[in-house]
Specification:
30% of the residues lie in helices and 20% in strands. The chain is of the alpha/beta class. The strands form six sheets. Strands 4-19-10-3-9-7-8 form a seven-stranded mixed beta sheet, with helices on both faces. A four-stranded antiparallel beta sheet has the order 13-14-16-15. Strand 7, helix 6 and strand 8 form a beta-alpha-beta unit. The two termini are 22 Å apart.
């Protein structure tokens, strides 16, 4: 193998020990704090003695796709092009999912590590990420969601259900994430990849607040796997794609601002299209409601007036122009609307009320998307070296740190 690779203007040393980068979907830091206080996460509780515990910022919009792709490219969405789970494709004039690798504008560190001779494995909870994470990757890449369909030709491995010893997990379950960790342990002890990327689902975080028995049990499960990876001699690096917050009033009712309804009522039905980039195939636990929305204006001469109107709505934190949003959040300017709207910490943004099925929300709404979910953990089982404590860290610095800056 070569000693160093260069990807998206950053250099990475090849792993000297098996290195596992873990994206815990929706990992608000308070989940870890509460699990530790409850005695449910002993490995994480003792990690500061021999490892590193820091905080970083995720990408805004604080959604799954843009952050996972930022992590595996080491770059913001302005470089890799994935700015949401869902966007309006101007070329075909349709709202589409951003799951297809054709939307990716930059190489991944994963593919380049494999190209340099490294053994690379990727396990993701939901299949929606597999195409993007596995783009041009010569290695192992599969999802827990479709573990029963894994094949050597398609995924670089076979018989994973039998190897893991778990039944195929339901998509909406804690077991979907547990399968990711169990598969990672099987790969670590058998194939021994040089580099492994594990990405979970935020089903638990959407349903259960920090400190609840269900949340603590979920973090206890993860803690056990982190300990096993550490004992196997792996470098373990943990971050999140975004945090998570309650999006309710004081008695648990959802705080929703239906932007399309408000705009249609004030200006008429043809002035704007509201698009919600949180939208993906798995909306049961959040109803396609998040704290970030983008608006395409059919009459751009009304932009100032529309902005002033939206800023005055309770629950709206900020309204940015396309240029302002692309600069502040490092987004691809050609893939966002004329306006970007951010919801306050306890508020989500919807399009029209009749476009959202909230029947699956059996517990108080918890979601993400705005700057209030931007702080995420950066945790390593080695001491950090060569990085100033004052430097702002991002979740997409994690592979750089894991390969270049751990003692």
């Amino acid at each position: 193998m070569t000693e160093v690779i260069n990807v998206n203007s950053r250099s990475y040393r090849l792993p000297s020990a098996p290195t596992i980068v873990i994206c815990v979907d929706g990992c608000e830091q308070e989940y870890i704090n509460q699990a530790i206080q409850a005695g449910q996460a002993p490995f994480l509780a003792g990690l500061s003695a021999f490892g590193t515990v820091r905080t970083g910022d995720c990408v805004v919009p604080s959604f799954t796709n843009p952050n996972n792709l930022s992590i595996v490219t080491g770059a913001p969405p302005s470089v890799h092009g994935i700015c949401g789970n869902f966007f309006f494709d101007q070329e075909v004039q349709e709202e589409v999912l951003m799951n297809d690798a054709k939307y990716l504008r930059a190489p991944t560190i994963l593919a380049e590590l494999a190209r340099a001779g490294g053994r690379v494995a990727v396990v993701t909870a939901k299949d929606k990420l597999r195409s993007l994470l596995g783009h041009e990757l010569e290695g192992i890449c599969f999802s827990a969601e479709k573990a029963d369909q894994v094949s050597l030709a398609e995924n670089g491995i076979e018989n994973i259900l039998a190897r893991v010893g778990m039944p195929l997990p339901a998509v909406y379950s804690a077991e979907l994430s547990e399968f990711v960790f169990a598969a990672g342990l099987s790969l670590l002890t058998n194939e021994r990849p040089d580099f492994m990327y594990l990405s979970t689902t935020d089903y638990v975080q959407h349903k259960f607040a920090p400190g609840t028995p269900e949340a603590n049990a979920f973090y206890a499960m993860m803690d056990g796997y982190f300990k096993r990876y550490h004992e196997e001699g792996a470098v373990v690096a943990i971050t999140a794609d975004h945090g998570m917050n309650a999006k309710t009033d004081a008695i648990g009712h959802p705080n929703i601002v239906f932007l399309q309804n408000l705009l249609d009522t004030r200006y008429g039905a043809r002035i704007a299209r509201v698009l919600l980039p949180i939208t993906d195939p798995y909306v049961v636990h959040h109803g396609a409601l998040g704290s970030y929305a983008t608006i395409y204006l059919h009459d751009r001469e009304r932009q100032r007036d529309v902005t002033d109107f939206l800023v005055g709505i309770a629950g709206v934190e900020a309204v940015l122009t396309r240029s302002q949003a692309s600069q502040r959040f490092e987004l691809p300017e050609d893939r966002i609307g004329d306006l970007v709207v951010l919801g306050e910490r306890l508020t989500v943004l919807g399009s029209a009320a009749d476009k959202h099925d909230l029947s699956g929300l059996t517990v108080p709404l918890r979601s993400h998307g705005g700057v209030s979910e931007q702080k995420v953990p950066l945790i390593f089982n080695r001491k950090l070296a060569g990085i100033d404590n004052a430097r702002r860290l991002r979740n997409f610095d994690i592979i750089d740190i894991a390969l270049n800056h751990l003692a």
